[in-house]
């Protein structure tokens, strides 16, 4: 068994080994945290949603970032027992069960990078999922420490989202109000036309917001009763949101 492990390590690039070693040294003195990052996942305002804050929290507190969609795809690709069950459900056009998703989270938590805790992204989205997550953590003698609720008014969110335009080939993003192109509708560098993503239209946003309010607000209420929800003001500049996050996590 030892020779097999050594052979496996020989295949790992030295830079990756050093990176992991440095990460473990840095994280050895960090306190344990288990976080659920509840965000209006359909799109936080530019520069203050999960795309900005999540990596900062992850690095500062040595947490792993568990995005349930990514974990499901990885489990299916790796053909783990849970991944095989998930694929069977998806092939039938069914939703992957909450128990399966919780099981995949349970497996992912055992990784060395998750020893100090984790940020959950995209789960739980319903109160039932939150209850199942709590049950799983309780079996391990753990619990959720903090829920970060990136609160933002629907009208502000609509202004931020529906004003976004992108240059498809480069990925450059613009906003009609906050970061407009020099010439309306065209990329600053190439002069090519900008497009609006299908998800950034008012109709799609309205539908997603309705789903959010209906499904996820009860989750926030569920954790509020436990006294672990921190209300953040997602409309503020990113540095101010980061400061709010730090205050919430040091409380």
UniProtKB/TrEMBL annotation:
Note the superkingdom of the native organism: Eukaryota
GO terms assigned for molecular function = AMP kinase activity; ATP binding
* Catalytic activity as recorded in UniProt: AMP + ATP = 2 ADP
Has keyword Transferase?
yes
What's the Enzyme Commission number for this chain? 2.7.4.3
Q: Where is the Adenylate kinase active site lid domain?
A: 164-199
> Which CDD domains does the record associate with it?
ADK
An example of a Gene Ontology cellular component annotation for this protein is: mitochondrion
Which keywords does this Swiss-Prot/TrEMBL entry list? Kinase, Nucleotide-binding, Transferase
Q: Which family does it belong to?
A: Belongs to the adenylate kinase family.
On subunit structure and binding partners, the annotation says: Monomer.
User: What does the protein in this record do?
Assistant: Catalyzes the reversible transfer of the terminal phosphate group between ATP and AMP. Plays an important role in cellular energy homeostasis and in adenine nucleotide metabolism.
What name does UniProt use for this protein? adenylate kinase
């Amino acid at each position: 068994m030892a020779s097999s492990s050594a052979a496996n390590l020989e295949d790992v690039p030295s830079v990756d080994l050093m990176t992991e070693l440095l990460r473990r040294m840095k994280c050895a003195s960090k306190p344990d945290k288990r976080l659920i990052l509840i965000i209006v996942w359909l799109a936080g305002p530019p520069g203050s949603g999960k795309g900005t804050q999540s990596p900062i929290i992850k690095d500062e507190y040595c947490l792993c970032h568990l995005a349930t969609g990514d974990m499901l795809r990885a489990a299916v690709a790796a053909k783990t027992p849970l991944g095989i069950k998930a694929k069977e459900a998806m092939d039938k056009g069914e939703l992957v069960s909450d128990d399966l998703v919780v099981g995949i989270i349970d497996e992912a938590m055992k990784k060395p990078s998750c020893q100090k805790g984790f940020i959950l992204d995209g789960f739980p989205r319903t109160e039932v999922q939150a209850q199942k997550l709590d049950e799983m953590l309780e079996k391990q003698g753990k619990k959720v420490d903090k829920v970060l609720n990136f609160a933002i008014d629907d009208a502000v969110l609509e202004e931020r989202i529906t004003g976004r335009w992108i240059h498809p080939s480069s990925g450059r993003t613009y906003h009609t109000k906050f970061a407009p192109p020099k010439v309306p509708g065209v990329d600053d560098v190439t002069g090519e036309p900008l497009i609006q993503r299908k998800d950034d239209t008012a109709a799609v946003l309205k539908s997603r917001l309705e789903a959010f309010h209906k499904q996820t607000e009860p989750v926030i209420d569920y954790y509020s009763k436990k006294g672990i929800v921190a209300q953040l003001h997602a409309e503020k500049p990113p540095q101010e949101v980061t400061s709010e996050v730090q205050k919430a996590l040091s409380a």
